[in-house]
Amino acid sequence: xxxxxxxxxxxxxxxxxxxxxxxxxxxxxxxxxxxxxxxxxxxxxxxxxxxxxxxxxxxxxxxxxxxxxxxxxxxxxxxxxxxxxxxxxxxxxxxxxxxxxxxxxxxxxxxxxxxxxxxxxxxxxxxxxxxxxxxxxxxxxxxxxxxxxxxxxxxxxxxxxxxxxxxxxxxxxxxxxxxxxxxxxxxxxxxxxxxxxxxxxxxxxxxxxxxxxxxxxxxxxxxxxxxxxxxxxxxxxxxxxxxxxxxxxxxxxxxxxxxxxxxxxxxxxxx
Length: 271
Fold this sequence. Notes:
Elements: H1 5-9, H2 18-31, H3 37-46, H4 53-62, E1 94-96, E2 102-111, E3 116-124, E4 129-136, H5 141-155, E5 162-165, H6 169-172, H7 174-182, E6 186-189, H8 199-211, H9 221-236, H10 250-259, E7 267-269
Parallel strand pairs: 2-5, 5-6
Antiparallel strand pairs: 1-7, 2-3, 3-4
Helix pairs in contact: 3-4
């Protein structure tokens, strides 16, 4: 019949009306207020809707759905003026090809009506998954230890996993270092006053602040204890598309990598 072979395999694209597309984009923007047009486009593609990113950007711009950055006052959470031992940076230029090879840790603050609440978090760099966190009124070693123990309980890493943090007293204290050594971690710390050495944790906190904290007016610590775990577990780990993971959520990315050939390309980390 002299028909090209590709014609047999051709599948017609599912066309969506402008009205239906606009309604779906609005729903995505309501669910994820800080999504830009790229993430909205990827979400539509995951749902089977074929649409150009330029069209999505135009619809979002015409309806004022484009997200805008929010600037907030910076509060210092790192106290590196202490007498504890400071460890060298082991996380620079290492190759990562699986989970539990490099964890990063950091602390941030959350403002409520009368004071600040503090959040400690630990993330696995390979999948960008938040694997441990803790919330407290006090910014002390117990806060960071709770986050660490949650991560260890969830992952049970083999000895040699690198734990990277800043030089803050909460991470350099004797109790915290003792816990790391007991579980066989290789201890790594950033250079003094250099946030780029802990860029992955800083990026997570930026996302948490812009997509959750700044969207709500927390009044009590109970509000924080209810909303933050929900965002980390249900939204960030399971739903939010991460550009560095090929626009996959962290949990989905881990499952995809688990099902792939083990001889996968290593990921080079450059701070």
